[in-house]
Amino acid sequence: xxxxxxxxxxxxxxxxxxxxxxxxxxxxxxxxxxxxxxxxxxxxxxxxxxxxxxxxxxxxxxxxxxxxxxxxxxxxxxxxxxxxxxxxxxxxxxxxxxxxxxxxxxxxxxxxxxxxxxxxxxxxxxxxxxxxxxxxxxxxxxxxxxxxxxxxxxxxxxxxxxxxxxxxxxxxxxxxxxxxxxxxxxxxxxxxxxxxxxxxxxxxxxxxxxxxxxxxxxxxxxxxxxxxxxxxxxxxxxxxxxxxxxxxxxxxxxxxxxxxxxxxxxxxxxxxxxxxxxxxxxxxxxxxxxxxxxxxxxxxxxxxxxxxxxxxxxxxxxxxxxxxxxxxxxxxxxxxxxxxxxxxxxxxxxxxxxxxxxxxxxxxxxxxxxxxxxxxxxxxxxxxxxxxxxxxxxxxxxxxxxxxxxxxxxxxxxxxxxxxxxxxxxxxxxxxxxxxxxxxxxxxxxxxxxxxxxxxxxxxxxxxxxxxxxxxxxxxxxxxxxxxxxxxxxxxxxxxxxxxxxxxxxxxxxxxxxxxxxxxxxxxxxxxxxxxxxxxxxxxxxxxxxxxxxxxxxxxxxxxxxxxxxxxxxxxxxxxxxxxxxxxxxxx
Length: 588
Prior knowledge:
Order of helices and strands: HHEHEEHEEEHHEEEEHEEEEHEHHHHHH
Shape: elongated
Distance between the termini: 57 Å
Helix content: 25-40%
Number of helices: 14
Number of strands: 15
Strand content: 15-25%
């Protein structure tokens, strides 16, 4: 057990070296941060309902502090929501928490240039930029590869690429069943079955996607030339004709799912007329980030629930059987078209993925937004303030001093009362301290854990919890030794069987209390509970993997086995002399 514990400590230390993480990440009260006040905006200017505010608080809290250990705080202040994010460089997170993050899938009805041409230079046809990638139900199908860049064939209407995303939300992306080569991140959903390259879609019965759409006769000076207006609502058509994406792109808009929508790509180069939402964000069951092993790119995987799988299959089937550009399905996030891939075959199974110019950070952010849901209200930032850590630094200094004094008192008491046996408790506390420090650093690196004052209080309180475990075991050993009928080695094993049950029960009670506090409380109380639960688990590991094996090893030494006065196991220290062996009287 000692070797196993040593291997764990070395492995954790190696992980710290590889990631160059040597100190914990600090929370809002110790490192400062940013406080943003969000003011709700309602369509009629009335006060928002408390139910919608409570729902928004819960969603934002999950987005910025989904694991519950990053020390971000979200609270209501009247009708406003106050968000406090620890650390520097959190502007991107703060910007994302106020978005609606409502994803909708809509069939493309028409495509045009994002900005109208200058007067006297009216375009006579729809723009023909580089064709966009296509979508297939099987990643292995050759049809799922993006079309090569270049000039479209004569008579073909190219599906335009919606542009690159500065934020990593890929506009040239594909929606497919999850690739068998996609390796999910720690929170990723499993991918679907591997596709069969021989199972290609039958395109013989489908309309030719390269054929030009049927359009009514138009004047050469008509800006709507080349646009198929069949089935498009007149109001949407008028909006499409006058929309200038360079001026009034609908970033952050909440598009009505039951109406046709006119929107722009993120870079403003392309505008779209989109049909009613075929699948909405409420049908998303899970969203997670992952890596495609084939391309090495980050992607966001989606799984639908309820009627979502059927709706997704229906819209991809409709698009597959339509002519360009209506063979595309657009993804609209907060009123912005983030992708509009061509559908190469109907996609069944209720799964999809968004791939493209993602980084790990942007893929995780989008997955979290979609996973935790859409905000019921639209918000605008009314104030942004920097939070100082001066007060927290003073409190940290006081807390560390208090912890050092408490640890010193425990060590002094152990050495005075248990003498030589007190060495075991001191070394056990040292091992527990090392493991706790490594855990805090690695949690900060991989799980966003930030050490705050409540966490530190929980760690200090755990010193007493750890010491209790040693005392229970040592007293059991001494009780067995008092009977005088057992050697030290035997007493150690018998005492361990009895003591470990008591230790486990006590730690289980403490851990259950920590879990209840963690899930039912927020803020500082939840942080205290997390630290207490963490150290409780570490205490169990140290007692089982270090304390007991180390005591068994010391029992082989004569200093302890013979009951030396400084060992803590002598008869005087145990307040009872060993029972003398019984003698049988001899007959005269």
